[in-house]
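Customer escalation, tier 2.

The customer says the design service returned an amino acid string that "doesn't look like it belongs to this structure." They asked us to rerun it and document both sides in this ticket. The original structure tokens are below, unchanged.
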């Protein structure tokens, strides 16, 4: 019998419709995403790449309201390990996303560290390991960002460990959490990315539960992942191979992750994000419907 997951608020995101960029001819139009995410039975969404959904708050509010949708978060990419020189450009991007998220009633800003590989060409553009000085810049920068976002926009930041970034493996995630102030910096645990990088989501929730402020639900195909790891395949090509797969066919099992999250005793968003860029336009909706039914069977 499944646990009643009454603290878990389930949603989905443009990512589950193959959307990685604000504007790309291979992606479904935003109207279709909104229609289909509502049809699939989700009530919460994320903004996705800034500019994919309408950025005028009144228009976006009208579009989501009439589909009975609500916005849980916006997302930004940052390169704070590069130090104070990038603060101004980072804050400009954060301001656009955070103000729209706040206007939509969201309380969270998902912060993804910059890739050390180019997300389109897969070229390695920075060393995968940070120096001690870069770690300090990253952790202090995230604390500064957390404070500024809260003071200016009333949102909490949740940092998203991600494949091909400097916050990826268990070792890096723990180092990051141990070096940052829990009052300023939360964690967005993405179950798929953490498994992709060798981490155990249930263990992380049990060990650092007070830091978990948000969840992304996804799974990896263990066979494809083994090949990806063995051959050093970059994240983008790995996604095109189908490394992120439809639940419940992959790992980690989501039932114990959701039960551990419920056990924290706090309200948490659990946003489905099945990376599928690019994908045929008819592919996402049936998967989204089945995934929502599966999560209901888990009690969410």
């Amino acid at each position: 019998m499944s646990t009643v997951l009454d603290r878990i608020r389930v949603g989905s995101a443009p990512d589950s419709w193959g959307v990685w960029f604000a504007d790309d001819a291979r992606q479904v139009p935003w109207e279709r995403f909104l229609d289909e995410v509502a049809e699939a039975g989700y009530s919460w969404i994320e903004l996705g790449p800034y500019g994919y959904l309408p950025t005028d708050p009144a228009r976006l509010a009208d579009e989501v309201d009439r589909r009975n949708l609500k916005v849980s978060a916006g997302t930004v990419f940052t390169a704070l390990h590069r130090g104070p020189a990038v603060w101004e450009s980072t804050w400009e991007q954060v301001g656009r996303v955070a103000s729209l998220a706040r206007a939509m009633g969201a309380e969270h800003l998902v912060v993804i560290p910059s890739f050390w590989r180019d997300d389109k060409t897969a070229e390695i553009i920075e060393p995968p390991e940070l120096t001690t000085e870069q770690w300090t810049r990253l952790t202090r920068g995230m604390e500064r960002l957390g404070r500024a976002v809260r003071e200016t926009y009333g949102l909490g930041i949740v940092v998203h460990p991600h494949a091909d970034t400097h916050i990826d493996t268990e070792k890096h995630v723990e180092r990051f959490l141990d070096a940052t102030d829990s009052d300023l910096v939360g964690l967005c645990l993405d179950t798929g990315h953490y498994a992709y990088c060798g981490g155990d989501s249930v263990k992380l929730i049990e060990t650092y539960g007070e830091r978990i402020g948000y969840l992304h639900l996804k799974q990896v195909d263990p066979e494809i992942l083994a090949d990806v790891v063995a051959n050093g395949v970059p994240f983008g090509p790995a996604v095109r191979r189908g490394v992120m797969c439809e639940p419940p066919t992959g790992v980690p099992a989501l039932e114990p992750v959701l039960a551990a999250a419920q056990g924290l005793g706090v309200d948490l968003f659990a946003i489905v994000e099945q990376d599928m860029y690019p994908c045929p336009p008819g592919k996402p909706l049936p998967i989204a419907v089945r995934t929502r039914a599966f999560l209901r069977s888990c009690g969410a």
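Tier 2 assessment: The sequence is consistent with the input. The chain has one domain: 8-297. The beta strands are 8-12, 44-46, 70-78, 108-113, 156-159, 185-190, 212-217, 219-220, 244-245, 268-272. Sent an explanation to the customer and offered a walkthrough call.
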